[in-house]
Amino acid sequence: MSHGLMKDRMAYVGRVPWHGLGKEVSETITAAEMIQAAGLDWRVWLQPAAGARLLQGQQAAYDRYLVMRDPVENEAVPVALGFVGSSYRELQNVDAFRFFEPFIADGYAQFHTAGALDNGQRVWVLAKLKDQILVGKDDPIDRYLLLSNSHDGSSAVSISFTPIRVVCQNTLALAQRNRVSAISIRHDRSLKSGLERAQQHQLKSLIEKIYADAATLFGKMAAFEVKADRVETFLEVLFPKTEQQKERQEEPERWTRIKQILKDESVTPPETRHTLWAVYNAVVRDEDYRHSREAGPEARLNRIWFGSGQALKLKALEKAQELVPAEQ
Fold it and tell me: What's the whole-model pTM score?
């Protein structure tokens, strides 16, 4: 049964992922080994699309291309992943993995998870960085880098800073005021040089600065007490009541679920239960694990990492930043 992860083509280090899919690999795995274990050792290429026009003044250049993928498993022919324009430049999976090699080699990071969505339209590599953020006395946050690449022209190459809360495996978001919270590199002629620039040693300085800022913010949130009415004000911004709910003095279902999460000590330690940190994490927890109409685990992963779920988490964190005093 396919789960949308390229027919379960995926690899992971450590504990089994929430979706239960993939092949377990060693913590010391190399880029070449990881790409093979994840079943991502295929290539893409550009093919002029049907009806494409030859561009004047450019030898063998067309205005429209198909991104084609090598056949895998029992596929007999290559698979079309999407349409792109003449300026598009493909990024091979092997080159996406190579981006992490210097960080793996010096022990700064290790591969954690890799896989693909749908027929390979999106490929991701998640690397775990050394060291943790500690919020309060015993609430560790693991630090990750997530490289995401689309093979269908739908998005740029993205390198994002992705904290994951250890106690409940919530995937948090980072929204930095006036700072870069993700590196975006377009699929054009500057793709290779853009990746090389991002790979230079300055990236480590950026990572450490962003995660240091995140640690400071999370600490302030954990020290910022919020009463019940302030919780509802926060939730109203994210999940506004309908006019009917206002008339009937009812609260949205998500409010009820989030308030229940706040009472769950396995997710919300008593030390920070009545804080902004707890409210934010309850929102994230609900978004990551709520029941939905999504068809399979791949749709959920797509939502919480790349879609509406990620957007909601960013909005929640931005609202939290507005509430926390600048100096505390």
Answer: 0.87
